[in-house]
Design goal:
The protein has seven helices and six strands, in the order βαβββββαααααα. By secondary structure, the chain is α+β, with helices and mostly antiparallel strands. 41% of the residues lie in helices and 13% in strands. The radius of gyration is 17 Å and the shape is globular. The strands form two sheets. It has a four-stranded mixed beta sheet. The protein folds into two domains: 74 residues, no CATH class; 130 residues, no CATH class. Strand 5 and strand 6 form a beta hairpin. It binds zinc ion. Zinc ion (ZN) binds next to loops.
C-alpha cells in the first residue's frame, strides 16, 4: 500500500510512466497498473453530510520486480472514516484552535459522537506523531532549522503543528505550494493517521522511509 495524490488523472499518468517505486524496503522496482480496488465514497462537504460526496476506486499496482501488488490510496481520506480527510482535519484544527466539540459538530453538520471519535483518535496520534513527523520534516527539508513547528496550545494542536511543519518542508523541498497538513498526515501514514490500532502496532517505523514516492508535484 502506498499513498498518492488525490488527482486520478495525475496518478494514472505517473503510473503509466513508471513513476511509482515499490514501497517494499530493499526492492526499488517500478510499479505497473494492476486493476482497481473496491470503490468507496467519502463525505467531503464542510457543511454537512450529503452536501458533497466524492467517489473513487483506488488504483491497484503490481511491482515489476518482486510481483507484489499494492493499492494506491489517494490522500483524500483517513482509513475507516466516512468523512474526508479535509472534513476531519478541519474539525481537529478547530478544536485545536479552542472551539468546543459540540460547536464544531454543529458547524460541520456531523454528529457530536463522530467528532468526539475523531478527536479521541487524533489524541492518540498526537502522543507519538509530533516526534515522528518532526524527524521526517528534518529529513525532507532543504533547511531543517526553518521547519521547526510553531507553538501548540494543546495535545492535538501539537499534532497539527508538527504536520504543518512537515507540509511546509515538503513544499520547500519539491518547490510546490505547501499541501494541507491533513493530506500530508494521510500520505505519511498511508491513510492511517487516525487509526489508534495502527499507532499501537508501532507500524509508524515504516515512516522512516525517504518520501519522494508520495510527495512532489501533484500531491494534493
Ligand atoms: Zn517490489
Amino acid at each position: 500500500m502506498l499513498t498518492v495524490c488525490a488527482n486520478g488523472v495525475v496518478v494514472e499518468a505517473r503510473l503509466a510512466a513508471g513513476g511509482y517505486l515499490c514501497p517494499d524496503s530493499g526492492c526499488g522496482g517500478v510499479l505497473g497498473p494492476w486493476g482497481w480496488a473496491r470503490r468507496r465514497v467519502v463525505e467531503d462537504g464542510l457543511g454537512g453530510r450529503g452536501e458533497r460526496r466524492v467517489g473513487f476506486a483506488p488504483r491497484r499496482a503490481r511491482c515489476r520486480s518482486c510481483g507484489v501488488t499494492h493499492v494506491l490510496l489517494p490522500v483524500l481520506f483517513f482509513s475507516r472514516r466516512a468523512d474526508s480527510a479535509r472534513v476531519v482535519g478541519r474539525a481537529v484544527e478547530l478544536v485545536a484552535g479552542g472551539l468546543g466539540r459540540r460547536v464544531v459538530a454543529g458547524l460541520l453538520g456531523r454528529p457530536l459522537g463522530t467528532v468526539r471519535g475523531w478527536l479521541r483518535s487524533a489524541g492518540v496520534a498526537a502522543r507519538a506523531g509530533p516526534e515522528v513527523f518532526g524527524a521526517m520534516a528534518a529529513e525532507v527539508a532543504p533547511d531543517a532549522a526553518r521547519v521547526a513547528p510553531g507553538p501548540a496550545g494543546s495535545l492535538v494542536g501539537g499534532l497539527v503543528a508538527s504536520l504543518s511543519a512537515l507540509a511546509a518542508a515538503v513544499g520547500a523541498r519539491w518547490g510546490v505550494a505547501a499541501p494541507g497538513w491533513e493530506a500530508v498526515g494521510a500520505a505519511a501514514c498511508r491513510c492511517r493517521l487516525l487509526q489508534a490500532s495502527w499507532w499501537a502496532s508501532k507500524a509508524q517505523h515504516e515512516l522512516a522511509l525517504p518520501p519522494p514516492w508520495w510527495a512532489g508535484p501533484g500531491l494534493v
